[in-house]
């Protein structure tokens, strides 16, 4: 099984590339979806957040006001780190469970769409690592347009993350999303070709079929050894 890391920065277009993989039939584990699930009302993650940040971050229906919580953590690094510490175990478990379900289905390639891929050290488990990059000017413009925030607010949110240029330097594959959607799609086709290449023998061993083959070969070997001993 090949685990492909996909990451980027806020408003870099990572979700666009993630959707392109889905459209191409490649399974994607989306950490943002997992994160939303682990903070639903009544869950362990929800209880930890309410205890740490108070009822002021709740909507009338009891669900977490993500916009309000975002304002708090993006303006205070210590609170952002606290939130990450509280949710990291729940999100990691959710991601591994989604991976396990895809593994049991026999999927050969899985995309791990994780915004904090480097921060959580999960890049160690993925190969290749794809970074969706965008130039700073375009990133700010897109973020302001998407969220309706000021330039200062947009810059603060960008500064709260690891520098996108640093992520770019650590990537195995870079998709430049500064241009048009057609430009991105053209780059994506080459990336899709690379991640769809035949699995290495190590990746085959990690797949469901590879494990079954190992178990069968081991069983046959034990039976033959037992037969020779009798």
From TrEMBL:
Class of this enzyme: transferase
Q: Which Gene3D superfamilies match?
A: P-loop containing nucleotide triphosphate hydrolases
GO biological process terms held by the UniProt record: coenzyme A biosynthetic process
Q: Which Pfam family would be a valid example here?
A: CoaE
Q: Which residues form the signal peptide?
A: none
- Keyword set includes DNA-binding: no
The EC number of this protein is: 2.7.1.24
Q: Which GO terms describe its molecular function?
A: ATP binding; dephospho-CoA kinase activity
Pathway annotation from the record: Cofactor biosynthesis; coenzyme A biosynthesis; CoA from (R)-pantothenate: step 5/5
Checking InterPro entries in the record gives: Depp_CoAkinase, P-loop_NTPase
Q: What superkingdom does the record give? A: Eukaryota
Q: Which PROSITE patterns match?
A: DPCK (PS51219)
Q: Which UniProt keywords apply?
A: ATP-binding, Nucleotide-binding
Q: Which GO terms describe its cellular component?
A: cytoplasm
What's this protein's family per the entry?
Belongs to the CoaE family.
Function of the molecule: Catalyzes the phosphorylation of the 3'-hydroxyl group of dephosphocoenzyme A to form coenzyme A.
Instruction: Tell me which NCBIfam families the record gives.
Output: dephospho-CoA kinase
Query: What name appears for this protein in its UniProt entry?
Result: Dephospho-CoA kinase
Organism equals Panicum hallii
């Amino acid at each position: 099984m090949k685990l492909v890391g996909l990451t980027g920065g806020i408003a870099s277009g990572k979700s666009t590339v993630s959707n392109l993989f889905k459209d191409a039939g490649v399974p994607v584990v989306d950490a943002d979806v997992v994160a939303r699930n682990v903070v639903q009302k009544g869950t362990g993650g929800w209880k930890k957040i309410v205890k740490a940040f108070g009822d002021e971050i709740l909507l009338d229906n009891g669900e977490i006001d993500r916009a309000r919580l975002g304002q708090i953590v993006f303006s205070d690094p210590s609170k952002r780190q606290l939130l990450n510490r509280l949710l990291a175990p729940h999100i990691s478990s959710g991601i591994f469970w989604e991976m396990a379900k895809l593994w049991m289905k026999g999927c050969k390639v899985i995309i791990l769409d994780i915004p904090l891929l480097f921060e959580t050290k999960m890049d160690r488990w993925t190969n290749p690592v794809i970074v969706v990059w965008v130039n700073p000017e375009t990133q700010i413009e897109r973020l302001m347009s998407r969220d309706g925030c000021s330039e200062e607010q947009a810059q603060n949110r960008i500064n709260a993350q690891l520098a996108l240029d640093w992520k770019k330097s650590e990537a195995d594959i870079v998709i430049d999303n500064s241009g048009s959607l057609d430009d991105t799609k053209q780059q994506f086709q080459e990336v899709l070709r690379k991640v769809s290449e035949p699995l290495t023998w190590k990746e085959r061993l990690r797949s469901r079929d590879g494990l079954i083959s190992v178990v069968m070969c081991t069983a046959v070997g034990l039976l033959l050894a037992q037969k020779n001993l009798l």
